[in-house]
Write a structure and sequence with these properties.
The protein is an alpha/beta fold and 250 residues long. The protein has a single domain (6-241), classed as Rossmann fold, CATH 3.40.50. The protein is built from nine helices and ten strands. Helix 3 (98-108) packs across helix 4 (113-126), helix 3 packs parallel to helix 5 and helix 4 crosses helix 5.
Length: 250
């Protein structure tokens, strides 16, 4: 059994006010895959991500991580396997110092103090933030917050990384550092993003959502080369695939 795989089958969900959010969503994630999840605002991407780690439970259908179904009874173990990076790092950073934020998850696993220290040091080193260990999170830049938020997840040693808009509100330099960092990870990755150039850089496969359903699932290069599909989904080609408005070249 591999905890790096996932199967979503006929997933359906509506919010308490009756607003439909997901309808018969089905896909599988293989060991080590990097998958982009794209679509216009309101397509259902964030709602889908919240089902993958048990923040929301299916109204119908199922989510399985390896052989384990995501249920209220298994959610504690599921969250050891799936590390989630939220769209807003401030939702993830709430302790007085960076060290304490990164240590929070391992502490809640009941790990020994020395192992917690090692995990925190390794996670911060991996994201290039070891020098921020004693800094309060509110004094970090946007890029630094994003790196530390990723470190809080890595300290839990997850098998799958789930990320919601990881490049939002980053300046170009911080965005490039993020892409270079994510490229080094061997985890299975599912990245919901409006940044199609980031998706093109990191993900060999792309799932397109519209109106709570999957409208396309295939190789990223092919998906982003389909002008009609992108237009129907409220998307535009990545800048790197668009023609130069002056010379007509790419």
């Amino acid at each position: 059994m591999s905890h790096h795989t996932m199967d979503v089958t006929d997933l359906g969900f509506a919010y308490p006010d009756g607003t439909p959010a997901l309808d018969d969503v089905t896909f599988s994630v293989g060991h080590g895959e990097s998958i982009a999840l794209v679509g216009a605002n309101g397509a259902g991407k964030s709602t889908l991500l919240m089902h993958l780690n048990g923040f929301l439970m299916p109204a119908r259908g199922s989510v399985r991580v390896g052989e384990i179904p995501v249920t209220k009874g298994t959610v504690h173990d599921i969250r050891k396997t799936i590390g989630t990076v939220f769209q807003d790092p401030d939702d993830q950073l709430f302790m007085p110092s960076v060290f304490e934020d990164v240590a929070f998850g391992p502490m809640n696993l009941g790990l020994p103090a020395e192992e917690i220290r090692v995990r925190v040091a390794d996670a911060l080193e991996r994201v290039g933030a070891a020098h921020l260990s004693e800094r309060p999170p509110y004094r970090l830049s946007g890029g630094e917050k994003r790196a530390v938020a990723i470190a809080t997840v890595l300290a839990m040693s997850p098998s799958i990384l789930v990320m919601d808009e990881p490049s939002s509100n980053l300046d170009p330099r911080a965005r490039r550092r993020l892409i270079e960092l994510l490229r080094t990870f061997e985890h299975t990755k599912i990245i919901a993003t409006h940044d199609l150039d980031l998706a093109l850089d990191l993900c060999e496969r792309t799932i397109v959502m519209s109106g709570g359903t999957i409208t396309a699932d295939g190789p990223t290069q092919e998906i982003f080369g389909d002008d009609a599909l992108l237009a129907e989904s409220g998307l535009e080609k990545p800048l790197s695939m668009q023609s130069c408005p002056v010379c007509g070249g790419t």
